[in-house]
Amino acid sequence: MSLIDISPPAFDLDIALAYATPDNVTGKPFYRADARPYLHPKAVECLGIAISLARPLGLRLKVFDAYRPVEGQWALWNASPDPEFVADPAKGGPHNRGVALDLTLIDASGRELDMGTGFDALTPRSHHGRTDVPLEAQRNRLLLLGLMTAAGFEFYTNEWWHYQLFNARDYPVVAQSELPSPVMD
Protein backbone atom coordinates (compact mmCIF):
# COMPACT_ATOMS: atom_id res chain seq x y z
CA MET A 1 0.00 0.00 0.00
CA SER A 2 1.51 3.31 -1.05
CA LEU A 3 1.35 6.26 1.27
CA ILE A 4 0.41 9.67 -0.14
CA ASP A 5 2.44 12.86 0.21
CA ILE A 6 0.15 15.44 1.85
CA SER A 7 2.37 18.44 1.15
CA PRO A 8 0.99 21.65 -0.38
CA PRO A 9 -0.09 22.63 -2.93
CA ALA A 10 -1.98 19.34 -3.29
CA PHE A 11 -3.34 19.85 0.24
CA ASP A 12 -4.24 23.17 1.88
CA LEU A 13 -2.10 22.58 4.96
CA ASP A 14 0.74 24.24 6.80
CA ILE A 15 3.51 21.66 7.22
CA ALA A 16 6.03 22.08 10.05
CA LEU A 17 7.56 18.67 10.67
CA ALA A 18 8.81 18.97 14.24
CA TYR A 19 11.23 16.08 13.96
CA ALA A 20 13.08 17.77 11.09
CA THR A 21 14.17 20.45 13.59
CA PRO A 22 15.81 20.33 17.04
CA ASP A 23 12.58 21.76 18.50
CA ASN A 24 11.22 18.41 19.67
CA VAL A 25 11.41 16.16 22.72
CA THR A 26 14.68 14.56 21.59
CA GLY A 27 16.40 17.96 21.26
CA LYS A 28 17.76 17.14 17.80
CA PRO A 29 16.35 16.55 14.34
CA PHE A 30 15.99 12.96 13.25
CA TYR A 31 14.06 13.59 10.01
CA ARG A 32 15.79 14.90 6.92
CA ALA A 33 15.46 18.67 6.44
CA ASP A 34 13.58 17.97 3.21
CA ALA A 35 11.31 15.30 4.76
CA ARG A 36 7.77 15.12 3.41
CA PRO A 37 4.61 14.10 5.30
CA TYR A 38 2.87 10.92 4.18
CA LEU A 39 -0.44 9.27 5.08
CA HIS A 40 -2.38 6.14 4.20
CA PRO A 41 -5.04 6.78 1.51
CA LYS A 42 -7.89 6.28 4.02
CA ALA A 43 -6.31 8.85 6.38
CA VAL A 44 -5.88 11.21 3.41
CA GLU A 45 -9.60 10.92 2.71
CA CYS A 46 -10.44 11.88 6.32
CA LEU A 47 -7.86 14.68 6.26
CA GLY A 48 -9.54 16.16 3.18
CA ILE A 49 -12.82 16.29 5.10
CA ALA A 50 -11.11 17.98 8.07
CA ILE A 51 -9.57 20.60 5.76
CA SER A 52 -13.00 21.28 4.25
CA LEU A 53 -14.63 21.59 7.69
CA ALA A 54 -11.98 24.02 8.96
CA ARG A 55 -12.03 26.30 5.89
CA PRO A 56 -15.44 28.01 6.48
CA LEU A 57 -14.33 28.78 10.04
CA GLY A 58 -11.32 30.71 8.68
CA LEU A 59 -8.99 28.03 10.02
CA ARG A 60 -6.36 25.71 8.58
CA LEU A 61 -4.50 22.69 9.88
CA LYS A 62 -0.81 22.77 10.74
CA VAL A 63 0.79 19.32 10.64
CA PHE A 64 3.69 18.50 12.97
CA ASP A 65 3.99 14.83 12.05
CA ALA A 66 2.30 12.15 9.96
CA TYR A 67 3.95 8.87 8.88
CA ARG A 68 6.93 8.15 11.12
CA PRO A 69 9.49 5.48 10.26
CA VAL A 70 10.10 2.90 12.99
CA GLU A 71 13.63 4.31 13.29
CA GLY A 72 12.05 7.65 14.26
CA GLN A 73 9.83 5.88 16.76
CA TRP A 74 12.97 4.48 18.38
CA ALA A 75 14.46 8.00 18.59
CA LEU A 76 11.37 9.19 20.47
CA TRP A 77 11.25 6.09 22.68
CA ASN A 78 14.93 6.44 23.59
CA ALA A 79 14.35 10.10 24.55
CA SER A 80 11.16 9.38 26.51
CA PRO A 81 10.21 5.72 27.01
CA ASP A 82 6.81 6.64 28.44
CA PRO A 83 3.99 4.56 26.90
CA GLU A 84 1.52 7.26 27.98
CA PHE A 85 2.94 9.45 25.20
CA VAL A 86 5.15 7.30 22.94
CA ALA A 87 4.14 3.99 21.34
CA ASP A 88 6.55 1.11 21.91
CA PRO A 89 8.56 0.88 18.67
CA ALA A 90 8.88 -2.90 19.05
CA LYS A 91 5.13 -3.12 18.42
CA GLY A 92 4.84 -0.23 15.97
CA GLY A 93 2.39 2.60 16.53
CA PRO A 94 -0.22 4.39 14.42
CA HIS A 95 2.35 6.82 12.98
CA ASN A 96 4.47 3.88 11.76
CA ARG A 97 1.44 2.69 9.83
CA GLY A 98 0.77 6.06 8.18
CA VAL A 99 -2.66 6.34 9.81
CA ALA A 100 -1.94 9.05 12.40
CA LEU A 101 -1.03 12.69 12.37
CA ASP A 102 -0.11 15.31 14.93
CA LEU A 103 -1.51 18.75 14.24
CA THR A 104 -3.02 21.98 15.48
CA LEU A 105 -5.25 24.75 14.18
CA ILE A 106 -3.99 28.03 12.75
CA ASP A 107 -5.89 31.22 11.98
CA ALA A 108 -5.97 33.15 8.70
CA SER A 109 -2.68 34.86 9.67
CA GLY A 110 -0.97 31.53 10.22
CA ARG A 111 -0.87 31.87 14.01
CA GLU A 112 -1.38 28.72 16.05
CA LEU A 113 -4.45 28.77 18.25
CA ASP A 114 -3.71 28.47 21.97
CA MET A 115 -4.03 24.84 23.04
CA GLY A 116 -2.76 25.29 26.59
CA THR A 117 0.49 23.38 26.01
CA GLY A 118 2.85 23.08 23.12
CA PHE A 119 2.95 20.15 20.75
CA ASP A 120 4.74 17.17 22.32
CA ALA A 121 4.47 18.55 25.85
CA LEU A 122 4.69 15.22 27.65
CA THR A 123 2.62 16.25 30.64
CA PRO A 124 -0.87 15.46 31.95
CA ARG A 125 -1.88 19.01 30.93
CA SER A 126 -1.71 17.78 27.31
CA HIS A 127 -4.58 15.35 27.91
CA HIS A 128 -8.01 16.03 26.44
CA GLY A 129 -10.65 17.32 28.84
CA ARG A 130 -8.26 19.29 31.05
CA THR A 131 -9.82 22.20 32.89
CA ASP A 132 -6.48 23.49 34.22
CA VAL A 133 -5.59 25.09 30.88
CA PRO A 134 -7.02 28.50 29.91
CA LEU A 135 -10.67 28.54 28.82
CA GLU A 136 -9.69 29.65 25.31
CA ALA A 137 -7.35 26.66 25.03
CA GLN A 138 -10.13 24.33 26.19
CA ARG A 139 -12.40 25.73 23.47
CA ASN A 140 -9.67 25.40 20.84
CA ARG A 141 -8.96 21.81 21.80
CA LEU A 142 -12.66 21.01 21.59
CA LEU A 143 -12.86 22.70 18.20
CA LEU A 144 -9.95 20.62 16.89
CA LEU A 145 -11.49 17.50 18.44
CA GLY A 146 -14.83 18.23 16.76
CA LEU A 147 -13.30 18.87 13.34
CA MET A 148 -11.12 15.78 13.42
CA THR A 149 -13.71 13.37 14.78
CA ALA A 150 -16.36 14.69 12.36
CA ALA A 151 -13.84 13.95 9.60
CA GLY A 152 -13.55 10.32 10.71
CA PHE A 153 -10.53 10.31 13.00
CA GLU A 154 -10.24 8.87 16.49
CA PHE A 155 -8.52 10.95 19.17
CA TYR A 156 -5.88 9.83 21.63
CA THR A 157 -6.93 10.94 25.08
CA ASN A 158 -3.40 11.78 26.31
CA GLU A 159 -2.45 14.15 23.47
CA TRP A 160 -4.64 16.99 22.21
CA TRP A 161 -2.63 17.04 18.94
CA HIS A 162 -2.81 13.32 17.99
CA TYR A 163 -5.49 11.86 15.71
CA GLN A 164 -5.58 8.49 14.01
CA LEU A 165 -7.84 6.20 12.03
CA PHE A 166 -10.05 3.86 14.02
CA ASN A 167 -8.55 0.39 14.43
CA ALA A 168 -5.12 1.82 13.63
CA ARG A 169 -3.33 -1.40 14.55
CA ASP A 170 -5.22 -3.25 11.81
CA TYR A 171 -3.03 -1.45 9.26
CA PRO A 172 0.47 -2.78 8.51
CA VAL A 173 3.65 -1.01 9.61
CA VAL A 174 5.14 0.72 6.56
CA ALA A 175 8.87 0.49 5.94
CA GLN A 176 10.58 3.73 5.00
CA SER A 177 11.95 1.96 1.92
CA GLU A 178 8.39 1.87 0.54
CA LEU A 179 8.26 5.68 0.28
CA PRO A 180 9.13 7.62 -2.88
CA SER A 181 11.32 9.97 -0.82
CA PRO A 182 12.96 9.02 2.49
CA VAL A 183 11.95 10.76 5.70
CA MET A 184 15.13 9.84 7.58
CA ASP A 185 18.73 9.32 6.44
Would you mind describing this structure in some detail?
This protein is of the alpha+beta class. Helices cover 22% and strands 15% of the residues. It has helices at residues 41-54, 70-79, 135-150, and strands at 4-5, 13-15, 38-39, 60-65, 100-106, 153-155, 162-165. It has a 5-stranded mixed beta sheet with strand order 2-4-5-7-6, covered by helices on one side. A two-stranded antiparallel sheet has the order 1-3. Strand 6 and strand 7 form a beta hairpin. 39% of the residues are buried. The model has no long low-confidence stretch (mean pLDDT 95).
- The poorly predicted ranges are none
Strand content: 5-15%
For the biggest sheet, the summary is: 5 strands, mixed
Class based on secondary structure composition and strand pairing:
alpha+beta
Gyration radius (Cα, Å) is 15 Å
Strand order of the largest sheet: 2-4-5-7-6
Distance between the termini: 22 Å
Number of strands: 7
